[in-house]
Amino acid sequence: RNLSKAGSLGRRVDLMRSAMLAPLLLYLLLAAGSDVTGEVVDKNPNFVFMMVDDLGIGDIGCYGNNTIRTPNIDRLASEGVKLTQYIAAAPLCTPSRAAFVTGRYPLRSGMASTGSVQVLLFLGGSGGLPPNETTFAKRLQQQGYTTGLVGKWHLGVNCESRGDHCHHPNQLGFTYFYGLPFTLFNDCVPGEGSDVLVDLQLTLQHLTLMLGLGLFTMVCVHLCGVLEVSLWLLVLLFFLCIVAAAVWYVPFVLLRTWNCIIMRNQDVIEQPMTVETLPQRLLTEAQKFIRR
């Protein structure tokens, strides 16, 4: 009985320590780091967050995977702290990132939706993470940190006009940004097909083909003298074909040109991006930022 009481007491102490440790870690993350000069030693830690798409907890060796080797991540876990409890706000890009940088449910910042469109699909749109949101990067800047984001953003770029960059990472706490303001859909890789509103694309494509076929048939009928067709009707059908083709072709066929770009801070440096060399360039930029 005494051993049972001792074990229960030990568990309560461990729980109390865990409960105290969580806010302490949060405090160190957000509150450390004013600039230190002179002979005073700067003890503020440098740290790196890695957010990985499509990675399950069971995909990493230190969490039990025995078929895929992840020695470097396993070493990080063995030399540091391995957390086993976490809440993922969403299983896809835009809402999960909004929750990650704000610590709030993405619905509160307008970054969550239902239906077939649950992420930002076009950089030319006005949607994005509101600039008045408090992000962990803003809090770190207030404490003297230099913050950088290398990789994928997918939380919007502009609001009212092209170039206002109100949703850009630079406006939401990141001193430096290099990477994809959009995401890596199949549409960004030549020959890999499409991910973006495929059903709508097919509908618009078929509508364009039907209008074109109808126009061709009526012109043939008119020229053969089988049926008298008004010239105005032919002109109207012609313009409808042009509009239908534009509505399908411009946003979807040219999606790679509009969306699949690379930016350094607020400058577009590659449009469309070259996917084959992207991983090495992102790695190089991250290493340069860490060295700086």
Briefly summarize what is shown.
The protein has 292 residues and is mainly alpha-helical. 43% of the residues lie in helices and 6% in strands. The chain has a four-stranded mixed β-sheet, with helices on one face.
Descriptive tags:
disordered N terminus, elongated, 8 helices, 292 residues, four-stranded mixed sheet, 4 strands, mainly alpha
Polypeptide structure, described:
InterPro entries: Alkaline_phosphatase_core_sf, Sulfatase, Sulfatase_CS, Sulfatase_N. Pfam families: Sulfatase. Keywords: Calcium, Hydrolase, Membrane, Metal-binding, Signal, Transmembrane, Transmembrane helix. This is Sulfatase N-terminal domain-containing protein. Belongs to the sulfatase family. There is one protein chain. Strand 3 and strand 4 form a beta hairpin. This protein starts with a helix and ends with a helix. The N terminus is likely disordered. Helix content is 43%, strand content 6%. It is mainly alpha-helical. It has eight helices and four strands; from the N terminus they run ααααββαααββα. Helix 5 packs antiparallel against helix 6. The longest helix is centred in the first third of the chain and has 30 residues. It has a four-stranded mixed sheet, with helices on one face.
Ordered list of secondary-structure elements with their pairings:
Blueprint: H1 2-31, H2 71-79, H3 93-102, H4 136-142, E1 148-152, E2 176-180, H5 198-224, H6 231-253, H7 255-259, E3 262-264, E4 267-270, H8 278-291
Helix pairs in contact: 5-6
Radius of gyration equals 27 Å
Mean residue pLDDT: 81
Series of H and E elements: HHHHEEHHHEEH
Structural class by helix and strand composition: mainly alpha
Range of helix content? 40-55%
Helical segment count: 8
| Strand elements, count | 4
Strand content of the residues, in percent?
Answer: 5-15%
Major sheet: arrangement of strands: 1-2-3-4
Shape: elongated
Biggest sheet overview: 4 strands, mixed
Distance between the termini: 59 Å
Multimeric organization: single chain
Q: Which ranges are low-confidence, i.e. pLDDT below 50, for 5 or more consecutive residues?
A: 1-37
